[in-house]
Recover the amino acids of this structure.
């Protein structure tokens, strides 16, 4: 089984400490969500895992046979992709296979791109320039690009933030299926605690750069813990259909 | 992802999509090549001695040892000029594209990064000192020192860039600094030189095909072929980089290493081009923009197309330079700048829309 051990991960921007000694042990087949209020280091943590920023501490990501997982086997999907590229959606997704592409593109790669575009219902956009897409469509295309690279570790930064309800469920369903089918580790930064509760196998709550609680979602989504982190009085309930619902009541500062 | 990468009910579909994307590009490349061949023949025919197309064909088939005056003019004067036009245009077009891609800056080009002004400074030193070769070989001095200074300025940008981790923005700024440094040094040399040498320097800085020799054709041609072959192995990585630094990094592309390798190759190509004909602006800036507009970002098409458009622009400029004032060949550097300005304004306005 794939595993990843984060030990004392700390990140500072200039002199400001953003992430403070975060440690965790994650396993393949897990969909891990990182939750927490704005500015607590969620994106910083997954960027550190993707080796896109410098950090202190160690990250050991291992394959089942004990060999190291390489950087190009980790795929990162940012919240927003800013680029003026003229590449079409099809070509953009094809770049997910950049490590394996030769001058003449093999058919297997073209097929893989077509398949994932169909799965994400993007095939009708295949000739459209990436730069002309809406924010939500761009996010889906980058998700397709990440999936087509068959990553061992998939990092999604707020993948549902620009999507409508249907596409939110679609993206998380695909991420969950990918995680279970391939035994990869998927880490999702997410603000919607209801969706996080529904899809996560493991949850990390960050607060002011620290990991204030992690483990089974049912234990992390505790009303007192959430109130302390988000400074909002919340009501955690279970719906008739069995889904956890987190309802914000009022900001804690107003209580005091 | 097993369910994505395996067998293929839709292979034909994927292939069809990809073929359709590339179909238009192939057509554009073919049309450009035909236009270039036409322009090259017109360039060979145009000049102070009037040649018909059949004269050009006959002289070419007679070979370099043909006994007619026309054969001599074609093989000793016009063909080196036309072929150096081809080598320089291709080199500047291709190196411009690569510099714009690796530095993520539409204004990056051999000219704006100071590489060309360094070449000018090298040539000026050669005119003043007569260094390093004397006698029959003194004509090599200017190209030799121009090449040397171009490599030196590129190394300066590279080492300064390395201090900042080869960041694109820093490298562009260092390029601008180098440009101003060599411009200042060039002005100093001109200020201190005799009127005759100053005139020589100014003429060199114009950029002229009259400096063309077969040696120049062989050297700059060989450098272009070698560099473009080296660049083919980076095509997909460069395409990925054009989609954004963070995307490229997260797809496993070592962007700093890529930037370093491609910068060195591009600088070498520029040096090979400007050393023999002098400073030629705008080709390295305009050709990549047009190529990108016509063919997109896929470097397997963009790189050859930039080289082809570089050749076409240079050849058209060469034809104009011979026609604009009857009996006089206007330095091509002046023509490329004059036709480059409206093109660039058009592109900026188009982009703004």
């Amino acid at each position: 089984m794939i595993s990843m051990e984060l030990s004392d991960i700390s990140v500072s921007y200039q002199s400001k400490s953003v992430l403070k000694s975060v440690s965790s042990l994650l396993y393949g087949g897990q969909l891990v969500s990182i939750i927490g209020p704005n500015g607590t280091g969620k994106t910083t943590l997954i960027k550190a895992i993707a080796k896109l920023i410098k950090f202190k501490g160690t990250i050991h990501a291992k394959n089942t046979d004990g060999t190291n997982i390489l950087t190009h086997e980790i795929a990162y999907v940012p919240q927003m992709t800013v680029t003026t590229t003229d590449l079409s959606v099809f070509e953009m997704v094809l770049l997910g296979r950049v490590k394996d592409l030769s001058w003449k593109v093999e058919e297997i790669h073209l097929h893989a791109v077509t398949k994932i575009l169909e799965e994400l219902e993007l095939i009708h956009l295949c000739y459209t320039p990436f730069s002309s897409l809406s924010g939500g469509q761009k996010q889906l295309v980058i998700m397709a690009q990440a999936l087509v690279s068959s990553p061992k570790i998939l990092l999604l930064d707020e993948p549902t933030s620009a999507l409508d309800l249907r596409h939110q469920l679609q993206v998380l369903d695909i991420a969950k299926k990918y995680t279970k089918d391939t035994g990869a580790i998927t880490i999702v930064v997410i603000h919607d605690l209801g969706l996080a509760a529904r899809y996560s196998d493991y949850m990390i709550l960050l607060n002011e750069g620290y990991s204030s609680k992690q483990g089974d979602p049912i234990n992390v989504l505790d009303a007192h813990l959430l109130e302390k982190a988000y400074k909002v009085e919340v009501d955690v309930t279970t719906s008739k259909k069995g889904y956890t619902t987190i309802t914000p009541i009022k900001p804690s500062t107003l209580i005091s | 992802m097993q369910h994505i990468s395996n067998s293929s009910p839709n292979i034909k579909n994927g292939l069809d999509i990809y073929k359709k994307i590339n179909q238009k590009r192939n057509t554009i490349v073919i049309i450009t090549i035909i236009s270039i061949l036409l322009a090259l023949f017109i360039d060979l025919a145009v000049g102070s001695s009037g040649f018909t197309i059949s004269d050009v064909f006959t002289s070419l088939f007679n070979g370099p040892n043909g006994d007619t005056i026309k054969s001599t003019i074609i093989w000793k004067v016009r063909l080196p000029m036309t072929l150096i036009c081809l080598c320089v245009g291709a080199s500047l077009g291709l190196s411009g594209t690569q510099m714009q891609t690796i530095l993520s800056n539409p204004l990056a080009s051999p000219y704006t990064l100071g590489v060309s002004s360094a070449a000018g400074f090298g040539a000026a030193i050669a005119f003043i000192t007569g260094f390093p070769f004397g006698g029959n070989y003194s004509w090599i001095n200017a190209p030799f020192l121009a090449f040397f200074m171009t490599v030196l300025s590129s190394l300066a940008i590279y080492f300064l860039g390395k201090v900042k981790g080869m960041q694109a923005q820093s490298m562009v700024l260092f390029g601008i600094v180098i440009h101003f440094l060599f411009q200042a040094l060039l002005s100093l040399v001109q200020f201190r030189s005799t009127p005759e040498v100053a005139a020589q320097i100014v003429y060199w800085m114009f950029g002229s095909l009259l400096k063309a020799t077969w040696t120049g054709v062989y050297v700059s041609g060989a450098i272009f072929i070698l560099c473009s072959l080296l660049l083919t192995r980076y095509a997909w990585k460069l395409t990925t980089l054009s989609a954004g630094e963070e995307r490229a990094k997260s797809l496993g592309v070592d962007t700093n290493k890529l930037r370093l390798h491609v910068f060195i190759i591009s600088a070498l190509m520029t040096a090979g081009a400007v050393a023999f004909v002098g400073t030629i602006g705008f080709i390295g800036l305009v050709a990549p923009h047009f190529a990108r507009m016509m063919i997109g970002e896929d470097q397997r098409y963009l790189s050859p197309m930039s080289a082809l458009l570089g050749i076409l622009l240079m050849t058209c400029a060469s034809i104009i330079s011979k026609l604009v004032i009857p009996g006089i060949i206007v330095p091509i550097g002046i023509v490329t700048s004059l036709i480059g300005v409206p093109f660039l304004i058009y592109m900026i306005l188009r982009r703004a829309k």
Notes: Chain A has two domains: 1-69+152-221, 83-145.
